[in-house]
């Protein structure tokens, strides 16, 4: 096991690789104190002579490299007070935060560290075609509120959320002052999962300040095209994968071995999977009916089917919804992450349901574990067909703006989709008909394509604070962004 002091030194060295020697003025906090981020911090964050770190993980490469992508350079706008200062001084605290926080809270750090190492990055703003804003805002929010780490910050009271000392507006204004060319594309690489969280951590303040400051070509990364989460219209949000974790205890177990066999030999996947077996496990989502017209209890009749493992639980973390019934669950026990991963990796089909909003982590999990996604409804394609209805906290993005990541390289139409209204009436019959119409050859083709794109859905393994095992998610996200820029440019030219 690596000693904590060595681990901390490694993290400081990785921060130093960013070469951010910006002398930041005092950032005023509402509690009355001020913090100066000085270059002396960078001088202190040096690696001991006895410690070595690889300069770049070998798998951080631009996928399907082409001249246009290779020639497009980006510059990370310095935000040391919510990146390097935190990493250099509180790495142990950060390790525990990201270890216990919501999976998706890790994305901000995976993105920051991977973008630092990306071959298209330049440290000279004069050479940049694109400017990127990163920030560890979820972690920073918890630090400044001096509260114990909780998995869902949006569930705390308004009083708890306003007692912190970090002035989001002042920080947002400082970010705008660091913008050197307002005419070029700017990308906010800070995804979040809730309208309230977006406001509390300061993401919405940053977006508003950039727009007010004259940055008109503004984009954002998001787990879905949700203006309430990211603060921008759907066509300016690049959909990215949710975050799937690989528990350390899964190594050298049937979970890891099953996934490894699938990766190495997808053609013989039937040796590790139960043919035509369907898996689903999820939370009831108490507010989903009133917020989006999504009733997950429609899967409850499937719990007794012989070729299906369907589990709908009530975690009790959400307040009871006015429109939800009380006994629409199959179990009160949540699967461990290891067991969930194993069941996905050993099932042929995995149900992908709606929730409070159109997206969830289950699609990314299915792609990672090679379980063919069987989608219920058309919400992921940006539509809202009955029983879907416009509700709270999410966006009907439209067919031109699906919530599916990497649509420029992955043909999502190959995967089966069933009508949500018909599924509600007779779920077992609808699934059996859909599965029977899907040939073995097509199933093998889908799994082969999933295996080909699998690394694009993995940000990394381990804790993002100190991991050196990066996936290919960020390089593919960068490629998706460049494709979106190209498409926007074509639309602009066609309207001239």
From TrEMBL:
Residue ranges, compositional bias (Low complexity): 323-332
Chain intervals for the UniProt region annotation (Disordered): 313-334
One Pfam family in the UniProt entry: Exostosin_GT47
Protein name: Exostosin GT47 domain-containing protein
Family: Belongs to the glycosyltransferase 47 family.
Species annotation: Seminavis robusta
Residue stretches making up the Exostosin GT47 domain: 318-415
GO molecular function terms attached to this record: glycosyltransferase activity
């Amino acid at each position: 096991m690596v000693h904590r002091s060595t681990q901390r030194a490694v993290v400081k060295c990785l921060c130093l690789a960013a070469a951010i020697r910006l002398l930041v003025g005092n950032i005023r906090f509402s509690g009355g104190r001020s913090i100066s981020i000085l270059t002396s911090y960078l001088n202190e964050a040096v690696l001991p002579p006895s410690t070595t770190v690889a300069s770049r993980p070998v798998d951080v490469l631009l996928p399907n490299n082409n001249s246009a992508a290779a020639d497009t350079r980006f510059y990370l706008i310095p935000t040391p007070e919510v990146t390097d200062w935190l990493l250099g001084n509180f790495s142990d605290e950060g390790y525990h935060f990201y270890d216990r926080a919501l999976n998706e809270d890790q994305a901000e750090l995976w993105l920051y560290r991977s973008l630092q190492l990306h071959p298209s990055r330049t440290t000279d703003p004069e050479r940049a075609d694109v400017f990127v804003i990163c920030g560890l805002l979820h972690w920073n929010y918890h630090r400044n509120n001096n509260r114990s780490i909780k998995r869902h910050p949006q569930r705390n009271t308004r009083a708890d959320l306003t007692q912190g000392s970090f002035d989001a507006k002042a920080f947002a204004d400082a970010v705008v002052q660091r913008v050197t060319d307002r005419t070029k594309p700017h990308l906010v690489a800070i995804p979040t999962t809730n309208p309230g969280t977006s406001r509390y951590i300061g993401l919405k303040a940053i977006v508003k300040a950039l727009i007010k400051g004259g940055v008109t070509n503004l984009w954002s990364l998001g787990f879905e095209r949700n203006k309430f989460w990211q603060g921008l219209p759907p066509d300016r949000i690049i959909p990215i994968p949710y975050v799937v974790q690989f528990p350390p205890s899964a190594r050298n177990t049937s979970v890891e071995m099953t996934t490894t066999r699938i990766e190495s030999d997808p053609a013989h996947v039937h040796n590790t999977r139960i043919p035509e077996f369907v898996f689903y496990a999820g939370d009831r989502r108490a507010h989903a009916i009133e917020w989006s017209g999504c009733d997950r209890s429609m899967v409850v009749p499937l719990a007794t089917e012989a070729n299906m493992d369907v589990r709908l639980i009530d975690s009790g973390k959400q307040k009871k919804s006015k429109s939800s019934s009380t006994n629409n669950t199959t179990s009160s026990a949540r699967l461990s992450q290891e067991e969930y991963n194993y069941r996905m990796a050993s099932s042929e089909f995995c149900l992908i349901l709606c929730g409070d909003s159109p997206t969830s982590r289950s699609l990314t999990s299915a792609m990672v574990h090679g379980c063919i996604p069987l989608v219920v409804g058309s919400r992921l394609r940006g539509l809202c067909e009955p029983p879907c209805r416009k509700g709270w906290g999410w966006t009907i993005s439209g067919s031109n703006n699906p919530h599916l990541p990497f649509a420029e390289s992955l043909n999502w139409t190959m995967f089966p989709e069933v009508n949500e209204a018909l599924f509600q009436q007779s779920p077992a019959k609808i699934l059996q008909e859909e599965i029977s119409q899907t040939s073995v050859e097509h199933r093998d083709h889908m799994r082969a394509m999933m295996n080909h794109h699998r690394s694009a859905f993995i940000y990394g393994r381990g804790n993002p604070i100190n991991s050196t095992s990066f996936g290919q998610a960020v390089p593919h996200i960068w490629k998706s962004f460049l494709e979106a820029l190209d498409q926007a440019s074509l639309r602009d030219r066609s309207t001239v």
